[in-house]
Amino acid sequence: MPELPEVEALAHHLREHAVGRVVHRVDVSSLQVLKTFTPSWTELHGRAVTGAGRHGKHLDLDCDGLHLVVHLARAGWLRWADNLAVAPPKPGKGPLALRVHLGPPGEGPGFDLTEAGTKKGLAAWIVTDPAEVPGIARLGPDALSVSRTQLEDLLSGRRERLKTALTDQTLVAGVGNAYSDEIMHTARLSPYATAGRLPGEALDRLHDALVSVLTDAVARSVGQGAAKLKGEKRSGLRVHARTGLPCPVCGDLVREVSFADKAFQYCPTCQTGGKPLADRRLSRLLK
């Protein structure tokens, strides 16, 4: 799933390559992806792209006051091309959901919004104010702007596990499954720690890790072409998606806890005092 660093990199790419161009045509291959119907996508036609930004994990393309806001969800992606096909895509064919021509079709660049797999979560809104998007209206402060004091206030009284709190977009915006694993590993904290009961020294480590992990990931990602961002993300991960491989800090094997549709990874030596966490899925299989 694209998280804060990748979405920031995509916004940077659009600022570099899309701003100043005109939307000539928008092709909608999947009506399911559109979550708003007024204004229509055709109202983007003829508008100049005046900006590109990010709200948590939402990408925002400003077309002279009309915003195309995108949430890439788990398997969505933005694919840039210097020359897009002239013929409109056939509805419901393949992963393509929406295509934006930033030049005369067949003569200019643009991008596709695509989504792999059968479980669809990619979403797009066309709004005059990004705050009209429900997910943006509910966002907590951006993860890169949170101070140490603010983080303590946000976590105060929270009873859920730290892993759950870090990925709650209403609490802190921008952190997902992968970078929460990396942040907790860097901070040497258990994913099962109670979010509102961290002592001061642990909060110091958590805030330092939140800033350093995301800042480093943004630095690695910004300037990369959209096609290279996924590989860049994988190359920088130390525990996430590395089950069974040695921890780069201590050499212990990275372990995994699995749920119905996702999993997280951690290092027992670095994070849980050497004790493996219970994997509920495995426990059910052994009964």
Word description of this protein:
It contains 9 helices and 10 strands. The protein is α+β, with helices and mostly antiparallel strands and 287 residues long. The protein folds into 2 domains: 134 residues, N-terminal domain of MutM-like DNA repair proteins; 144 residues, Orthogonal Bundle (Helicase, Ruva Protein, domain 3), CATH 1.10.8. A hairpin with a 2-residue loop joins strand 2 and strand 3. Helix 1 packs parallel to helix 6 and helix 5 packs across helix 6. 39% of the residues are buried.
Key terms for this structure?
287 residues; alpha+beta; N-terminal domain of MutM-like DNA repair proteins; Helicase, Ruva Protein, domain 3; 2 domains; four-stranded antiparallel beta sheet; 9 helices
Order of helices and strands: HEEEEEEEEHHHHHHEEHH
Major sheet, described briefly?
Answer: 4 strands, antiparallel
Domain unit count: 2
- Structural class of the secondary structure composition? alpha+beta
Radius of gyration: 20 Å
Low-confidence stretches: 282-287
Which overall shape is indicated by the principal axes computed on the Cα atoms? Answer: elongated
Number of strands: 10
The spatial strand order of the largest sheet comes to 1-6-7-5
The third-level CATH topology of the largest domain is Helicase, Ruva Protein, domain 3
Number of helices: 9
Overall average residue pLDDT: 93
Strand content: 15-25%
- Termini distance? 32 Å
Q: Which architecture of the largest domain per CATH?
A: Orthogonal Bundle
Task: Just give the CATH class of the largest domain.
Answer: Mainly Alpha
Pfam family, one: zf-FPG_IleRS
EC number: 3.2.2.23, 4.2.99.18
Keywords: DNA damage, DNA repair, DNA-binding, Glycosidase, Hydrolase, Lyase, Metal-binding, Multifunctional enzyme, Zinc, Zinc-finger
Protein name: Formamidopyrimidine-DNA glycosylase
